[in-house]
Specification:
This protein has 699 residues and is α+β, with helices and mostly antiparallel strands. About 1% of the residues have low confidence.
Length: 699
């Protein structure tokens, strides 16, 4: 292969997304003092372009504009150009995405924002077409935009400075969650009821999910529905949840061969996905399917949860135990061909018939495979009709259909393994791994499977050993043995969330100790008394044009939302009232926003639900390797019990009692594994039988 024609400063980065742009003719800089100094010294505006490696339209804009020498020449002459991986730098993404949303009413990636030399935004947007596509998109071409922005900077700079000042003021007002005005703060139970009613009004009764196309899974909103059903007994909430989860799992958004969910559906019925796969989506959804299985006992949900976790372990796991970030939407349909969206996942009838032989006809009927196709002349596998209906129409017995499905899925999966795979972003992010850790811990408890527990324990060890500095400071990103960037609030909160779930699963007090340390660090580094909440960046983070605070639950849960429930759970375990007070302050400061926009605060609603519930503390004393302890653990771990916190005391453990008063002076009764059920640290009589424990938990 010949040497690249161009190489820029991104060649020294570890981010796969930045490295994808290292051979653009654009003189890209990573975010840092070198680029900012150049902009100030040369008095040039900055173009910051934010994206991520699995982003389809990021690749399109790169091919059309950033790889074009003429466009690059304009960029290099007129601007200081900075490339940012949004997954590594959520702080920058949050600031500039909020600015673009304020200017245009919408956002997305690629995010292209024009800044003053001090980093203040004054104009921006998402995808901009090259010259030949501008008319079709009814937008200025990217080249036209570059020239116009440069001219405005030269001749109307005072206007741009004023516009930037107003934008920053708007962002700071949003960060402070101010502007409530005359707002009646209802009781939290009323907030939760109103949130459910708002979600119910927007529910798609036909296809599941909320609203129309494009349709996102919204696992945090779905989790709130489950919590709401458990706490209130509302069956409509359970119906909304089950209908959505079933429709998604049978649709094209779910990989019917390899397991795992794509990012979202471009239609309203879950058929055509945006084909990238994200660690966070699959971690959150795997846990959601585990939990609905715990509630319903329906093995269909257990299968989807298992297949999704198997996908993560097969495709997204570093040998040392950390999970990679994403898989791309685009891939080569054959080696050496130009990449196409979804090429790895779609099929023609001829390909299916050649692979499956006599099973092909039934398989095609079940999975909606036809000559005309359902996606650009090819087929996305999905299951739009119940097997009973297909059995009636075809005359094939249900067991024959199931055999054809199982053989066909296995055969096509093996055939697909010979295709060029989508690019994988192999950086390991602390926050996203925290979500995977909690999902694995949940599956270990619900299914009683050692394989999930072993994966969770290895993942926790990897994160604590590789994404912490020697002084205990958490780091954001790891790749190729190198960890970089100080951790954000979401890294601390989500890792703590995962470790606390792992402590519930195996009772190792190390995980509780680490969770407490992370919670204390959150309060020290991110809490602000004047705000009554957490910022996303630590108090010693580099100075940006504003300190970001993204409180809404978007594709991933907000750091504030996760921190609230972690603190509430730790308060129940440790009795530390500071944890509870800080959590309640965040809830109070965001109540108005939860009332007005419930769909944007799914995880925070779950935290509010936990704050409203009667929480029970269960202390179990015994050896988990012995049957009597295992029986008591099953009573707590196998069902879905969102309002129970669990502490375990194993033989010889002196650490756990020092961390939680629930385990102090606890002993086994008559040499048997023993459970102590408490509420607000007032405990019932100890019990040693499963039925008695079940009864106390139900009171």
């Amino acid at each position: 292969m010949s040497a690249p024609t161009y190489t820029n400063r991104l060649i020294n980065e570890t981010s796969p997304y930045l490295l994808q742009h290292a051979h653009n003719p654009v003189d890209w800089y990573p975010w840092g003092e070198e680029a900012l100094t150049k902009a100030r010294t040369e008095n040039k505006p900055i173009l910051i372009s934010v994206g991520y490696s699995a982003c389809h339209w990021c690749h399109v804009m790169e091919d059309e504009s950033f790889a074009d020498p003429d466009t690059a020449a304009l960029m290099n002459e007129l601007f200081v150009n900075i490339k940012v991986d949004r997954e590594e730098r959520p702080d920058l993404d949050s600031i500039y995405m909020t600015a673009v949303q304020a200017m245009t009413g919408q956002g997305g990636w690629p995010l292209n924002v024009f800044l003053l030399p001090d980093g203040t935004p004054f104009y921006g947007g998402t995808y901009f077409p090259p010259d030949e596509k501008a008319v079709r998109y009814r937008m200025p071409s990217f080249k036209q935009l570059l020239l116009s922005i440069a001219e405005a900077y030269r001749t109307r700079r005072d206007e741009l400075v004023q516009a930037g000042k107003e934008l920053i003021g708007h962002i700071q007002q949003l960060n402070a969650a101010s502007g409530v005005g005359e707002f009646r703060f209802p009781p939290m139970a009323e907030v939760l009821d109103n949130a459910f009613q708002g979600l119910a009004r927007n529910f798609d009764q036909r296809n599941g999910g909320f609203g129309g196309a494009p349709k996102f899974p919204q696992p945090m909103t779905l989790e709130f529905l489950l919590r709401y059903h458990i706490r209130t007994g509302n069956d409509e909430a359970l119906h909304m949840l089950e209908h959505t989860l079933r429709k998604m799992a049978l649709g094209g958004i779910y990989d019917q061969l390899g397991g795992g969910f794509h990012r979202y559906s471009v239609d309203d019925h879950w058929l055509v996905p945006h084909f990238e796969k994200m660690l966070y989506d699959n971690a959150l959804l795997a846990r959601m399917y585990v939990e609905i299985y715990q509630v319903t006992g329906d093995s269909f949900y257990a299968r989807i949860a298992d297949e999704t976790l198997v996908y993560l372990a097969r495709e997204m796991l570093h040998p040392a135990g950390g999970f990679y970030s994403t898989q791309d939407a685009d891939s080569e349909p054959r080696p050496g061909a130009r990449k196409e969206e979804g090429a790895f996942f779609v099929w023609t009838t001829d390909e299916v018939r050649e692979a499956l032989g006599e099973d092909a006809a039934l398989f095609c009927t079940v999975f909606d495979v036809s000559r005309q196709g359902n996606f650009e002349g090819r087929n996305i596998l999905n299951m739009p009709r119940p097997l009973a209906e297909i059995a009636r129409v075809t005359g094939a017995p249900t067991n024959r259909l199931e055999e054809a499905i199982n053989r066909g899925r296995a055969t096509l999966f093996e055939a697909r393994e010979h295709r060029p795979k989508p690019h994988r972003d192999e950086k390991v992010l602390t926050a996203w791994n925290g979500m995977a850790l909690r999902a694995l811990a949940a599956a270990a408890m619900a299914f009683g499977e050692d394989k999930y527990l072993a994966l969770a324990q290895r993942n926790a060890e990897f994160l604590l050993n590789n994404l912490r500095r020697s002084d205990g400071r958490l780091l954001r990103s790891w790749k190729d043995g190198k960890a970089t960037l100080l951790g954000y609030l979401e890294d601390y909160a989500l890792l703590a969330d995962g470790l606390l779930a792992l402590y519930s699963a195996d009772g190792n007090p190390r995980w509780l100790r680490e969770t407490i340390a992370l919670a204390d660090a959150m309060l020290a580094l991110f809490w602000d008394d004047d705000l009554g909440g957490f910022y996303d960046t630590a108090s010693d983070h580099e100075t940006l044009v504003t300190r970001p605070r993204d409180v809404g639950d978007n594709a991933t849960p907000a750091g504030n939302s996760v921190a609230v429930e972690v603190l509430l759970r730790l308060a129940a375990l440790t009795g530390n009232e500071t944890y509870r007070t800080r959590a309640e302050q965040v809830l109070n400061s965001l109540t108005a926003m939860m009332v007005r926009m419930p769909a944007g605060f799914g995880r925070l609603l779950c935290a509010a639900d936990f704050a409203e519930a009667r929480v029970k503390e269960a202390a179990l004393v015994g050896d988990p390797a012995v049957a009597d302890m295992r029986t008591l653990l099953d009573v707590i771990q196998r069902p879905y019990r969102p309002y129970v916190v669990l502490a375990q005391l194993h033989p010889g453990d002196t650490l756990a009692p020092s961390l939680t008063p629930l385990l102090q002076e606890r002993t086994m009764v008559e040499g048997k594994a023993t459970a102590y059920v408490c509420e607000n640290f007032a405990c019932k009589l100890p019990v040693t039988e499963a039925a008695a424990l079940q009864s106390q938990l139900a009171e």
